Amino acid sequence: MNIKNIDIKPFPDQKPGTSGLRKKVAVFQQPHYLATFVQSILNTLTPAEKSKLVIGGDGRFFNPDALQIICKVAIANNVKELIIGQHGLLSTPAASCIIRKYNANGGFILSASHNPGGPLGDFGLKFNTANGGPAPESFTQNVYENTLKINQYFIADIGDIDCSTIGNQPIKNTTINVIDPVSDYANLMETLFDFSTIREHLTNKSISILFDAMHAITGPYAREIFVNRLGAPESALMNAEPKADFGGEHPDPNMAHAEKLTKQLFNKDGPDLGAASDGDGDRNMILGREFYVTPSDSLAIIAANAHLIPGYKLGLAGVARSMPTSRAIDVVAKQLKIPCYETPTGWKYFGNLLDAKKITLCGEESFGTGSNHIREKDGLWAVLCWLNILTVRNQSVKQITLEHWKAYGRHYYSRHDYENISSESANNLVNQLETTLPTLAGKTFGGMIVKHADNFSYTDPIDNATSSNQGIRILFEDGSRVIFRLSGTGTEGATLRVYLEKYTTDDCFLELSSNEALAPLSLIARDIAQILYFTDRTCPTVIT
Ligand code: VG1
Ligand code: CO
User: Fold this and answer.
1) Which end of the chain is more exposed for a tag (fewer CB within 10 A), N or C?
2) Which pLDDT tens digit goes with each residue over 83-92?
3) Please, are residues 184 and 93 in contact by the beta-carbon 8 Å criterion?
């Protein structure tokens, strides 16, 4: 077999963002673009670090072509074994599970997560390391530096590889091992949750669930777990056939995009639990009957009830949340007398804490929740946490949340996204905020006094790596917070995220809508950042 050495010029735009390299499909379709990036990743690994690699993706448009390119480049680079999800499919949490289970050195995840798919949509590639988690910033930086100077890549000159037949096949020095994408992950879930009790409740219909896979990767996983293993009816699944363009919809599990699911839950006869996951299966939205649980509250409630779940009954070593995530989890950690870490946005920052056994659970406000069972956030795992808690507590999602607020206080929370603004306006807005930061402490806005304002910087407690400029935060005397960050996952212009949080322990305010409770803070945020002036926007595009 021939190995071709292809001479190329570096692509200047291969800098990964919050979660891998994400671009419009057309960018990835340029000749040599993907192969060059894959070669840069392989150049950054030592021979021992690229002996066994996993490949799988969320099945979006370009997934099959990308799969072939990655395999052929890996074969040309003498990777000894490639473990591939059948048809090139693996949810992000399943990829993490498989890297860990088979002691692989890492893996390629083909996904742009919650971003739209199809020929005009987005594609992405992420590299995870041997712990099953997203590569740390230092590795990604080395890959990026390589992309700026790379001048050739290697590719096997062969026909397409069969990735649809389960089993092993040798190609040159590489063994191609095609595996079932679902069973290892489903087996792992069985070790963590009380499947027999959940099965009892689902089959005798004392609990009902409706899960929206949003035409994305979780469909087959949800069918195996909820229907085959837990006895829920097939009607418990919505949009469970993965489609390359996600049915033309936006596979982002929030009430705006999972509109039909939300409608069915906001109904007095609706199911007990409603849930949705994103394109690659790592996010989750939790709904109860006529009730929405914010992701930050969901994390806190799972932590407070973790002792009811078999996999966590021995207690939690500690917990962590990304900086913009609400501090509901901090209050639970305090009560449990366990540490609570605050990390920058992005799952990669939880990896060291999980590996060092400092934390057991962690999460982000962006519909991400997870634990030490893998090194990615995990949508179906979060749904199983709630199912397990519901069976033990015998209360509704709403009752459990209201009781949680009574016991711990409530963190009103909302994220306002201003999507697709020009990069120039976004940068000007952030620069202006930066210059005013030192002058803010002590000032009063709408009756609220600023206690502290800074740009968040994080030093990893395990390897001391420092990450600065991770989001502007303004903390008020009463414990409220306003945070501003620019998204690192978009592919068009810039997205400004404004995170609003206000805490109350006063019983008479507990059931206020978050819109009402956060309205004054929202005005203050708009004022301090001069959002209208810099962006010309009078309101956000998406509120979650
Ligand atoms: C967003 C979220 C962040 C999450 C990241 C990847 O990043 O805010 O919390 O970790 O997406 O999630 P950003 O930089 O756009 O705010 V996923 O499900 O897109 O891999
Ligand atoms: Co995702």
Assistant:
1) N
2) 999 999 999 9
3) no
